[in-house]
Amino acid sequence: MERLDTSLLDGFRFACRPTCGLCCFASPHVPLEERAALLAAVPDALGAASGDHVPARAGGGACRLLSLSRCTAHAARPAPCREFPVSVHLGPRAQATLVLSCPGLDLTALAPARPDRSPAGPVGLETELAAARATLDRLDPRAERRARRGWREALDALGVEDPLALAERREAAATPLNVSATALRDEGLPDEADGLENLPLFHDDRFGTVAIAGSGAEVDLLVLRESGGVDRRLATYPRLERRPALDPSASEILEGYRAHLLARDGVVGAAALRALEAGPPGLSAALGLEVDAVLGATLARAAWRQQLEGRSGGSLEAAAVLAGIRATDADFLDRPTVGLWL
Questions:
Q1: Could you check whether the bond before residue 281 is cis, i.e. omega within 30 degrees of 0?
Q2: Whether residues 167 and 215 fall in one domain
Q3: What would the mean pLDDT of 77-82 be, rounded to a whole number?
Q4: Quick one: how many helices (H) and strands (E) in the chain?
């Protein structure tokens, strides 16, 4: 029996864009058994501290292994880099999901009615899934047991019998999609003072890696340098106060993204934490709030990105909503959960 549940990847196509570099604005963990090969390729890869992460450059810069958007240790790159854009969550199962911020993913798979959507598995992710399975196989069984026990204890405390919380997911999905004004304001955005490395990012073919920073009643879009720091300030936009109109294809994409979010165990795990902290009315309501926060940020960032393209006012188009998802998904994907992100 397949240990890793990959059903959430069905229909997606992937082709890495080597000059993008978005995934390299990070400090990847290097498993102990991989350090010798990495250090043989790049002797100072781990820096003077000799830690277990490849350091990112200061000021929100990229991994020190990146040079001109190319990895200088690609053949020996650590497990998180080989797996990207696959991410694995441990809860009631080991579930693979995708970092939808990656420009190499075809996000039109989120449209449930797309005529050419493949019912089979993903395309182009064979190497990344093999790396994710290898990481899962190396996992300390005690860590896996702790993750499953933490999940079960949380759901027991919330009175949820089904370990997958399917009824709660269905209840949240049955609620009409009506993104709240609070979520649209995207008030959880950090500002520059919180550190450039903490800002959500997206890739733009014209500008490179762009960060989104909160700034009171406004947001700033900042182009980051690979070497660290702000290269230029692209634009400043007011926060959204009401939901923008969506054209039919954009609405379909947003509904598809909501369904995708509710299928992620990590989202359920984050909602369970929210419910445990807030108390009644329970997991279904917390799931609704969790998804509302993601979709609100998605629409706000979609509007800003559409304005960046020179199109302000009018309905949001499907391309804008897809751009909003790319600017949002990585930001919310690794929220704390009662399970475990590998």
A1: yes
A2: no
A3: 94
A4: 11, 10
Matching residue, tokens 């781990």: 46
Q: What is the pLDDT of residues 37-54, one digit of tens each?
A: 999 999 988 886 657 899
Range list of H helices, the chain: 35-41, 79-83, 126-138, 141-157, 166-174, 181-184, 248-263, 265-278, 283-308, 318-326, 329-333
The backbone torsions φ and ψ at residue 106, rounded to the nearest 5 degrees and listed phi first, read: -85, 105
Considering its fold, how many domains does the chain have in total?
Answer: 3
- Tell me, yes or no, whether 17 and 117 share the same domain: yes
> CA 151 → CA 90, 140, 157, 162, 258, distances in Å?
9, 17, 10, 11, 22
DSSP 8-class letter at 212: E
Helix axes 283-308, 318-326, angle to 10 degrees: 110
Q: Do 147 and 134 share a structural domain?
A: no
Report the alpha-carbon angle 241-246-250, nearest 5. Answer: 125
The model carries a pTM of 0.94
The residues, ordered by sequence, that sit 6+ positions from 92 with a Cβ below 8 Å of its Cβ are 148, 151, 152, 163, 164, 265, 339
Count Cα atoms within 13 angstroms, Cβ side, for 255.
15
pLDDT per residue as tens digits for the range 5-26: 999 999 999 999 988 999 999 9
Q: Is the dihedral of CA 156, 157, 159, 165 positive or negative?
A: negative
Interior CA angle at 9 toward 30 and 205, to 5°?
Answer: 70
Round the CA-based radius of gyration of the chain to a whole number and report it. Answer: 20
Q: Which domain covers residue 100, as residue numbers?
A: 4-139
Both tokens of 330, joined, read 């990585």
